[in-house]
């Protein structure tokens, strides 16, 4: 019933457009283009996605939006022209069509083979075959069969008005070969994605699968190929551009011919982007993918996102896919730090997302909530896979996924329904229910084990006494319901000094960005002249890249304060014996439920030991003389298995 209704609407429109005066039909065509633009949802998002892939960093979001709008206007005019195909004659051509390159056709007609007119979904490609036929070169046109038979019949009726013969693409290859050998001409398109059946060529900086049919047929029949493109100049005025014929002399020329075709087409699209059909998924079979990480400026969250991006990259590589951005092959994973206009914007976006209203105006919503610079960056960026960590970015993640028709990954339990994400990586202590798109981990994602192999302890190995074992302290900082008092820290440093003196150890220490200034001052005062402290990093002053990795690589024992879930997870994933330092009266502290669950879980499974202040020295000593190797946490395979569902 729906298909029949579509047929009736199209049939009525074609009749009305044919009987109206030309100027009126042109106005109506633009109105139809506007209506199509207004009613199309997913098609517009496909168009924006394609445009971002083609013109990344070349055109801003305003230009891209105008291209989509103009494309629909152009399609409206093309529909009018199809309705008026019956009026076409040489007088019409002389008035509205400027033809260049016709001499190339004349040169080839004296030969013994038919010509392959190779065009694209550019300009009014349906009109171009009519023009060629009226000029005296009737062609057989290969056309895709429409889903609705009645609509297919209408289109084929109009296509056949001036001597063209329509051949569906499913027709036998022998018919195409016979056509050319009988000196009949053949019209074909080659700008569609044909998945595994095509040859890989470059198109706007990315690999695409192009149909090799036209070139292979030309090779087998020794027929010439003429690129024929119809470009709209204004209104119903066009220029038919025919380019010099070339031949496919051997099988190597098939690939070269396809690349030449894509280069010529790309050049035309650069000049008139609104005249190409951006609605088709041209890069569907591309071997390139891009990964975008959203960062909330929290180092722990960013490290988790980077780890997931790294694993995802490896899974894509296994599938033969390359991770890169168009025109920037050196930049594999793009990290974006969105800035909100107002502090309440993340909460506002969550509310809008729950109401589903964002689907009606996603771009406007982002332009309102993000700073101009952030909006421009995210609007231009092509996104295939999107990763974020933390609730402040979860709604933004979902909206960007919707706009880009991409896959998205969230790390940590979001306040939004998990169904909004293709994959949710949630630590066990966040307590969530199992679902097909959820992978529950014991720790937060990290790639410390990989970094240890690559970077090792090169940054600090020359600072150590190689004949001594090494103790490291990874000190966090104040949180909402907890502050490290100066006397607590002085006591901790005193214990570390005693332990290092008694056991003759190297001492390595790093603070975090959350460490208070008063705590930083104590570290400097207490350790500045202490000869066993071989490495001290005050993160808010000078935080060398790779310090944490280098320290873990060099450490026999890693002490981590209880307040950093990310750091505990990273330490547990290294080869060091890990001791989590607990504050006094931990059970009475508010707001650390997740921390307590993670620490207890890790301790029960043997990944860490726990120690209050008065137990630190004893626990360190036990670990120093323990013969068993540290138990290492590794959840990479578990996460990658879940990623396989979305790659």
Biggest sheet strand line-up: 1-9-8-2-5-3-4
The number of helices is 24
Structural class: alpha/beta
Number of structurally distinct domains? 3
Biggest β-sheet strands, sense, barrel: 7 strands, mixed
Can you identify the CATH class of the largest domain? Alpha Beta
The amount of helix comes to: 40-55%
- CATH topological fold name of the largest domain: Glycerol-3-phosphate (1)-acyltransferase
Unreliable segments of 5+ consecutive residues: none
What is the CA–CA distance across the termini? 37 Å
Radius of gyration: 33 Å
- Please tell me the CATH architecture of the largest domain by its name: 3-Layer(aba) Sandwich
Number of strands: 23
Explain what this protein looks like in three dimensions:
- The structure is a single chain.
- By secondary structure, the chain is an alpha/beta fold.
- It has three domains: 2-275, Glycerol-3-phosphate (1)-acyltransferase (3-Layer(aba) Sandwich); 288-441, Rossmann fold (3-Layer(aba) Sandwich), CATH 3.40.50; 448-624, Rossmann fold (3-Layer(aba) Sandwich), CATH 3.40.50.
- It contains 24 helices and 23 strands.
- The strands form five sheets. The protein has a seven-stranded mixed β-sheet with strand order 1-9-8-2-5-3-4, sandwiched between helices. A six-stranded parallel β-sheet has the order 13-11-14-15-16-17, with helices on both faces.
- Strand 8 (225-234) and strand 9 (237-242) form a beta hairpin.
- Helix 13 packs across helix 16 (394-404), helix 17 crosses helix 20 (547-554) and helix 18 (486-503) runs parallel beside helix 23 (616-624).
- The radius of gyration is 33 Å and the shape is elongated.
């Amino acid at each position: 019933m729906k298909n029949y209704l579509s047929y009736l609407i199209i049939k009525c429109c074609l009749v009305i457009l044919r009987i109206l005066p030309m100027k009126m039909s042109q106005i109506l065509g633009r109105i139809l283009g506007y209506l199509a633009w207004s009613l199309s949802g997913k098609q517009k998002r496909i168009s924006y996605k394609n445009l971002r892939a083609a013109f990344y960093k070349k055109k801003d979001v305003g230009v891209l939006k105008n291209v989509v709008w103009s494309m629909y206007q152009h399609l409206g005019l093309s529909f009018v022209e199809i309705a008026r195909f019956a009026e076409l004659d040489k007088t019409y051509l002389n008035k509205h069509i400027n033809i260049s390159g016709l001499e190339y056709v004349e040169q080839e007609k004296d030969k013994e083979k038919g010509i392959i007119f190779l065009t694209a979904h550019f300009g009014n490609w349906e009109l171009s075959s009519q023009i060629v036929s009226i000029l005296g070169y009737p062609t057989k046109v290969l056309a895709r069969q429409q889903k609705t038979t009645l609509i297919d019949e209408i289109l084929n009726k109009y296509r056949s008005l001036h001597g063209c013969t329509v051949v569906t693409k499913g027709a036998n290859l022998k018919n195409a070969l016979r056509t050319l050998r009988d000196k009949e001409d053949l019209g074909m398109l080659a700008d569609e994605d044909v998945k595994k059946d095509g040859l890989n060529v470059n198109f706007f900086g990315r690999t695409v699968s192009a149909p090799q049919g036209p070139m292979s047929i030309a090779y087998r029949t020794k027929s010439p190929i003429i690129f024929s493109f119809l470009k709209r100049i204004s209104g119903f005025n066009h220029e038919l551009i025919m380019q010099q014929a070339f031949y496919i002399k051997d099988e190597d020329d098939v690939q070269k011919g396809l690349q030449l075709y894509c280069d010529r087409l790309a050049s035309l699209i650069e000049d008139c982007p609104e005249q190409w059909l951006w609605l088709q998924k041209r890069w569907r079979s591309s071997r390139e993918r891009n990964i975008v990480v959203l960062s909330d400026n929290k180092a722990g969250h960013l490290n988790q996102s980077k780890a997931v991006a790294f694993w995802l990259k490896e899974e894509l590589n296994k599938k033969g896919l390359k991770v890169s951005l168009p025109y920037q092959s050196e930049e594999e994973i793009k990290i974006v730090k969105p800035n909100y206009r107002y502090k309440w914007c993340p909460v506002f976006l969550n509310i809008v997302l729950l109401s589903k209203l964002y689907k009606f105006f996603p771009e406007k919503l982002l332009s309102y909530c993000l700073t101009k610079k952030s909006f421009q960056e995210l609007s231009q960026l092509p996104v295939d896979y999107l990763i974020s960590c933390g609730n402040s970015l979860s709604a933004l993640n979902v909206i960007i996924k919707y706009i880009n028709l991409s896959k998205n990954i969230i790390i940590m339990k979001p306040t939004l329904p998990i169904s909004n994400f293709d994959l949710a990586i949630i630590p066990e202590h966040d307590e969530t229910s199992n679902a097909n798109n959820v992978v529950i981990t014991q720790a937060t994602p990290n790639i410390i084990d990989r970094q240890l192999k690559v970077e090792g302890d090169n940054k600090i190995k020359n600072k150590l006494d190689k004949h001594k074992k090494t103790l490291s302290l990874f000190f966090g900082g104040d949180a909402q319901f907890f502050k490290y008092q100066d006397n607590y820290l002085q006591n901790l440093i005193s214990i570390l000094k005693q332990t290092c003196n008694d056991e003759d150890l190297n001492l390595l220490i790093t603070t975090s960005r959350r460490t208070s200034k008063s705590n930083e001052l104590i570290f400097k005062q207490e350790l500045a002249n202490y000869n066993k402290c071989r490495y001290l990093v005050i993160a808010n002053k000078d935080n060398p890249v790779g310090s944490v990795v280098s320290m873990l690589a060099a450490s026999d024992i890693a002490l981590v304060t209880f307040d950093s879930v990310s750091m505990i997870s990273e330490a547990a994933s290294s080869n060091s014996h890990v001791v989590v330092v607990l504050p006094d009266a931990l059970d009475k502290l508010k707001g650390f439920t997740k921390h307590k669950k993670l620490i207890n879980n890790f301790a029960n499974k043997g990944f860490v030991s726990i120690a209050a202040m008065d137990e630190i020295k004893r626990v360190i000593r036990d670990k120093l003389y323990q013969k068993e190797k540290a138990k290492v946490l590794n959840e990479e395979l578990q996460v990658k298995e879940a990623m396989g569902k979305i790659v």
